[in-house]
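Final report, results section. Input specification for complex C-07:
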Amino acid sequence: MFQILNTFLIGITSGSIYALMAISMVLVWRSTRVVNFAQAGMALLSTYFGYEVVNRFDSYWLALPVAMISGAVVAAFIELVFMRVLLKHSNSGPIASIAPIIATLGLLGLIKAFIGFFWGNQDVNIESPLSTVGFSIGTQTLSLSPMKLLILIAVSMLLLVLTFVFQKTNIGLALRASAYAPEISRLAGIKVDLVRTFGWALAGAAGGAAGMLQTANGNGALSPDSLEFSLLLAFGFIAAVIGGLDSLLGAVFGALLLGLVLAFVLTYVGGSLVFITAFVLLLVVLIVRPAGLISQKAGRRA
Amino acid sequence: MSLRIENLSVHHGAIHAVNDISFTVPKGQLAALIGANGAGKTTLLRTLSGLTKSSHGTAHWNSLNLLQSKPENSVRNGVSHVSEGKSVIPELTVEENLEIGALWRRNRKEMIESKKSVIEIFPRLGERLSQRADTLSGGERQMLALSRSLMSKPELLLLDEPSLGLAPLVVEQIFQSIRELTTSMGITVLLVEQNAMGALKIADVGIVLNLGKVAVSGSASTLMADPQVRAAYLGY
Amino acid sequence: MHNLKASNISRFFGFILFGVILLIVGNSVDELRVYQGATVAMYVVAISSIILLTGYSGQVSLGHGALLAVGGYGAALLRNNFNAPVWLCFAGAVLLAALWGALLGATAARLSGPYLAGTTLALAVGLPSIANQFKFLGGEQGLIFDIGLPPASLGEMFSLYKWFFWIASLAALISMWWLQNLLRSRYGRVWRAIRTQSIAAELAGIHVARSKILAFTVSAGLAGLAGALLSMTISTVSPGAFPLTLSFALATGAVISGVTTLGGVIIGAVTLVAIPEIADSIAHRIGASENVTNNLPGLLVSGLLILTVLFVPNGPVEQMKHRKKVHI
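Structure output:
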């Protein structure tokens, strides 16, 4: 019974980090109709900025917002100087449908090389700001440490803020309108290009937060080739797709589901099957409910 | 104060969709632009609002150069385009669909006032504010599209086929509302229609487009009396 | 018809001639170049496998490294457990990977664009780590894949690297020859029809799904061959030999070659092999730090990829053809 609770806690924590990553993929997808495979790379870069702050000012609490802001700036910059040119250049021709995918891969490579230039390929460390030892109940230790608690609180707050922005503010309405119908939005007077950049910036901020939290949730090590970030990339994508790519709520739901399923497989079946499970889950969803578990529109042709 | 189009041409690849068109719509008038499928009506509207690039000619609304202005900026200068086929966003609520028309003004108070005044014109929308737009009937959607456009307080309205796919009774209502916009609010309207009869009935002036060129133009009543126009476009 | 046959024959002799040139070149350069030649040949096979998939049938794979791994492991298992002759190892690698490809293709046919890209990407992230978990695959260290010494009849001076080069070049020549013919056949036309006009193709009575699966199968078979060749040149198969970066490098090679035509495949293959060396010499010349030296190849490859997508999206070969047409 206690083990079930612990597994649940582990799953929810990692799932909530995947949720941030999935959200950042969904935000980009909604604003530009591009699945950004460089998203994890951008998150990694912002985490390195966070690492610099931790290094100099010894404050994780300062580093977290810095990582988010730098993530937003980097993403906005990429959208402005890169994606716009790309989408204008490659909107026709035989590889029009794959050009953005390939280009984001190139971007991922550039970002990794850039990180390597400045920080090297060896691990650097961000120490966890809070204890990672679980609370104990009687003689047993709960898989919920102050750090994990922080992660859960931070993610929930970010989700609340995002929901508020999306549902209650003008920029949120502009974001939604531009995502669903860019042309009608332009005719209604919305500067869709600007709104897109803002969508990317939000995505970058979410990615930055995901990177900082993921690093602190793991062993604190950070490197351009770290498996953690490959997993963040893969699981973020899988979670976003499970949720239906178009829906923020779906992304969160998909991520928590993924986190839980993986945690239970890890505890009760074995580590060797974790990845296969994620992959099978992805395939099953794609085949059985191609529009995602939560979706408004049918069809998965993009 | 008028909409002035001079020698306007638009190409779609090798196709000459709009071919050297010139006409003027004086302020406060309702102009009906009629013609068969593929006559270049929609292309002309899209060019005027900035969605499509022109290849030659000029188009001005007062002093605003329409061909150099992006759609989102034209709206700010009083030119609003309601595109073909009930241009509402189905995933948003009726209220949100209205609000996006006035977002650019960044003025909460004005937005609420505009909302109130369009609901006065189309009370049925007022009853459905919190419903998603895809729950509306075809006629209601067209009303919503018109209202969203009115939210930006336009001086010139470019309407693309508002009667498309609507029941005859509803068409009449929509046409009456459009006439009202000109008569009581002084909005200049360029109305593109396949329903030539209905459009000419409410219009002050008519322009007949054929294969990208202006075939005939004149006051609506003259056109309706013109035997050639009657035979080719009005069907009697 | 006669014309077609004539051009077929001349093309065949073209390939033979190319092979002879390779032989002569292979004899006159040093060991390192010969080894690099073998790697180029491996890349030619791997990249053409992606071009077939992406350029001809319109499907994207960011996870070809996983299929290469299947081929590599298949060949090594055959060699180690059954002592199979080398050619049989390669054939086995092709078949095993093709089988996987057929399974994957059956799923892939239902996906498109970013969904397929992401799914194959997820596979590439995951598959090598799966290899870690099974004993008979040798875990982290992987398996040895030793094709043995070159036959004595080639003389004592004949080095192992040259033997690799011969095998890899022969494999590349045969597969390119076969692929060219395949693409000129009915299948090739069907694939192109699907890529450009999927719906129209379906209306014209083409089984789109079936054709896509076939493309995936053939592509996977080629990838398996490339995997076996790669394993041969490094004498082992291990999860570490098929990292995500390999999959990305192959996709890059395909884009640089021009995904819509096989003609440029050698460009991509040579680029992939040459870039580390170019990067090395640049880093050396400017006296760069270790960090820069380590990451310069990645920077160059990614930069080249982005520039290609932006400015010559259809690849250099198509671009040149296009230019010629415009001038004439």
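Chain B has a mean pLDDT of 89. Residues 168-185 of chain B form the longest helix (18 residues). This concludes the modelling results for the funded period.
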